[in-house]
Amino acid sequence: MRIATWNVNSINARLETVVRWFEAAQPDVACLQELKCVDEKFPAEPFERLGYNIAVHGQKTYNGVAILSKTPLEDVRRGLPVHPDHGGEEDDHARYIEAVISGPRPVRVASIYLPNGNPIGTEKFAYKLAWMGRLNAHARELLALEEPLALVGDYNVIPEPRDAEYPKNWETDALFQIESREAFRALKWLGFTDAYLEADGAPGAYTFWDYQAGAWQRNNGIRIDHALLSPQAADLLRGVSIHRDVRGWDKPSDHVPLVVELDV
What we know:
- By secondary structure, the protein is α+β, with helices and mostly antiparallel strands.
- It has one domain (2-262): Deoxyribonuclease I, Chain A (4-Layer Sandwich).
- It is 22% helix and 26% strand.
- It contains 6 helices and 14 strands.
- Strands 3-4-2-1-14-13 form a 6-stranded mixed beta sheet. The chain has a 6-stranded mixed beta sheet with strand order 5-6-7-8-12-9.
């Protein structure tokens, strides 16, 4: 099973590019982020034509996540549950969708678009950390199910200096703050495996290059798209690939697809 994660940065604006990649890569499951459209505006037809079942949690202009699968989707959850210790109110941001991918050995998958958090010192940064706390609490409950689980998506966290070409450029950014990195480590310490580090681990494996200042041309990239696997999923890990070339296509997203292969 090949599970992809990709922040497409507006599914309708980049539909031709996204469909082109789907046709070439043929992922079994694809978790998309930053759709920037409501559910009914998601362009389902070209993906259904390729054989995908679709679950969408959209939002007008901002956010939006989806899971596409060549086998039926079951037990779909839209949104993280409320947690009293990490912001006890309902969250109307479409940043999380989860489903069980049916098959001989089902796999639970979540598509995650974690808050950016900038600027530091504002409610946006507090919201980022609270959201990560809610994700941690929910992940604990999912791990208790003891099933193959993949939490994939745009985490908006640079885990270590090695995950940026120029770490100093990010020292005042929410993506690289110690609080963000500690929250990401706390999530991993629940028992998750970072699929890329496990399967490859070579430095320079970036998944994002900004549109500004020739970042792509200068390889000024960062690794912020991650796939965290439960022990049951990590045992099935066979490889990870970053489709770097997609960043050089016409009308690209500023992110590229990350693909995890499980022996399912």
